[in-house]
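Model: You mentioned two targets. I'll fold them one after the other.
Researcher: Yes, keep them separate.
Model: Target one:
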Amino acid sequence: MPIPSEINDLIERLNQELNKVEQESRVGLSLAQALLNRFPENARLIQLFASFNSAIFFSEIERRRIKSIIENFSGDNLATEEEIQEVGEDLASELGRVLETKMLISNLKQRLDNLP
């Protein structure tokens, strides 16, 4: 069964948001690394660096999770409306987690940008 357009739209949005999380995290990593080179014992910088690394790892895990959801859905020959709705709800939950992570990373990066 072909994947409904609403599900495809949700997958596309998820991938876009994950790309943004990764991009912001990589920039944050670079900023944190530069500051850590100057202040290697700063616990807050170490924590920020770890947060950016965790966000990149989270993005990789989410991509695998999304792929698994779609593979399980696509494996069924005839998906019921209930199964389609369940997939949509699963993907919407994933989107919520991704957006939350994106906001966190954006705030952390902004903190680094605002340092003197």
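Model: Target two:
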Amino acid sequence: MSKIWKKLLLAILILACLFNVVSKLVKRYPLKTELESAAQYLEENKQNKTIN
């Protein structure tokens, strides 16, 4: 009985990991969007430092 539970939990763990990886690949933002948001953040941060 315990062997069945171990195998079942291992299968659930593997499925959860695969689901996590696939969802991260699907929701991945394009590189251009990431670079634009990083540049915007840096520019805003620079402006805030010059104001203070």
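Researcher: Noted. Anything on target two?
Model: The chain has a mean pLDDT of 88.
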